[in-house]
Amino acid sequence: MPDLITSDGSIRKDNWAVVPRPADGDSLDIPDQPSLIPADLWLAGKEHFENREDIGVWLDSHEEPEILAGVVNELPVIAVNFPKFSDGRGYSIARLLRERLNYRNELRAVGDVLLDQLQFMKRCGFDTYVLRADKDINKAARCLNFFTQGYQAATDTDVPLFRRRAS
Amino acid sequence: MYVYDEHDRQIAAERVAQFRDQTERALAGELREDEFLPLRLQNGLYVQRLAPMLRIAVPYGMLRSAQLRRLARITRDYDKGYAHFTTRQNVQLNWPAIEDVPDILAELAEVEMHANQTSGNCIRNTTTDQFSGVQADEITDPRPYCEIIRQWSTFHPEFAFLPRKFKVAVNASEHTDRAAIQVHDIGLQMVRNDQGELGFRVHVGGGLGRTPMVGPVIREFLPELDLLTYLEAVLRVYNRYGRRDNKFKARIKILVKALTPEGFAAKVEEEWSHIKDSPTRLTEEAISQFKGYFTEPDYQQVPDVTDTLATQRFENREFDQWITHNVDSHKHPGYAIVTLTMKKTGTPPGDVSDRQLEQIADLAEKYSFGEVRVTHQQNVVLADVRKDELFELWQAITPMGFATANLNTLTDVICCPGGDYCALANAKSIPVAEAIQRQFDDLDFLYDIGNIDLNISGCMNACGHHHVGNIGVLGVDKKGQEFYQISLGGSSHHDAAIGKILGPSFARDDMPEVIQKIINVYVDHRTEEEPFLDTYRRIGIEPFKERVYA
Ligand code: HEM
Ligand code: SF4
Question: Nitrite/sulphite reductase 4Fe-4S domain: which residues (chain B) (predicted)?
Fold first, then answer.
């Protein structure tokens, strides 16, 4: 089982599989392990997955998290895919899931997840990160904490620096 | 001027440590070139034709003497002893070594400077009018708002990987726009509404580069407390829906155009409705805290020297010309705004040596409360000079080469570094500026033809703002040969406009003559007191074409 890192810097084993979107006409093939399936397919077949603790969803960077409005907390895990680390849409998706759709369970970054983006991801509401395989997970904890504070309010704090200074 | 508190100092120190770590991993091969690229760009580091280039941020153009002296030392210790003022009020070094950059950043942090987000696909340095706070006609001082935006945009976790770079500019003057806000991704014009409340008129989707556009207004009045939440809404819409498939279509201007300004505005309003009252909403106390950093310096009751000045001007024609052109009126009695021109013929526009940086630092201390501002025309401003010291100041700066009395005239050229430094250039631009300056070396003729913006870029990226020059010059490449295309009628002021291309391009040697012909057409057609741009707008491009291609 591969490792993942959590926002508090601990490393743990992970056996969630990201199930790719099936080609047109093919059906979804869910492996015999906890699985993250495309969010729209989960929505379309939601009744099949009632009470399945081992099925979560993933969103791609161009997808709209709003499709999950009202049902997010039925999911144990939502993953957001970074097709390329320089594609910054996943940060906005994470904040929307957390701050607008009020998602409370595990939010996970998958795909082209590198070290130097981790702190941004954390501030936008991700709490687990599956690093790209060639990256050294032992360096992740440090990269999650380069900065002890930020200027802005984000998912991690609703007190922007200008409010902290004023108090 | 803004002074760091313990929070800013800590964040700055952590940033330097982070970049040191990143640089070490990059040099050790743990970061691929494409992975290091955005990290180094967000720390101002380019890799150029001859050497790396480091772009140092000068938030809204303001520098203290101690910072100028540190810049001077850095250019000496790590570079070749000179730097360059840019059209985004920043400073560039052309020859640093990559391994030295973390040390340079550490030296900068000691004087409250940095290179954060001076490049890369993130929110760049916010720019403003170099006369902010000292001119009579401004709605309010825009600098506290620029600093508020600077802090909000610094390491914003959601917007560090945008589809493209993103630039914000603020203007507060009612009669002029020295910040070129309408050619920025977001341009904020400070206004008061009918109730007298302070706010912003918001332009979105302007920009230069390959597809130049003047930014349409998407909100007529944004109350000041809503500044950051609204910016956040604009950026979120852009981050989610801006095109990422094609780098030439990735700018927000393309999205605004595709959705129409109304459609784009509606999307922003919808996004904003959710976050309007979030903790990011500014407070009165926060704004007044930021304003506290930009209070007036300790102005003296100075003697009214009108008569003495008149005599000095009468007796010394060069001083008189300098006062007329390089000195502006100040809102406080007895004071004046002085622009030091960095446009001496033979020196690349914006270039400044280590020695000159120190001279400027000394001048600022002696004559202007230890502060200067960098202008987007690549000059330097002493904003608070006593009128009774103008003559002495002028005598001091003349031998330094800062007194060329050509501000806003044809030879006050804005010019990018072009082929002399820039890896992206199609043509050189510095020698073209110089040749034109030589052609128009008669100051009386320059004054006679009045204010003209001449802007030169060495390629389509438009660093020299050629699209918004009254006369724009663009270097183009034809089968490996350098040529120059002319455009006419651009403006970056309140009447912002993109220039129209005159026709086929010219060889470099012909440029002074071509500009001369354009000026001759203007002189032939102008009515009394009519500026170049007005004549152009009245008679159109045809008369210019006919003469130039005759
Ligand atoms: C060797 C140094 C430089 C390099 C490699 C460089 C690179 C670039 C690039 C790649 C762009 C295009 C970005 C785009 O279209 O989105 C650009 C645009 C620009 N650059 Fe530079 N630049 C350099 C120097 C300068 C200097 C010295 C100035 C000021 C004199 C400057 C000011 C600008 C401005 C104002 C733009 C604006 C374009 C816009 O608003 O679309 N750059 N530069
Ligand atoms: S306009 Fe082109 S040539 Fe000039 S500095 Fe910018 S990128 Fe380089």
Answer: 119-275, 409-548
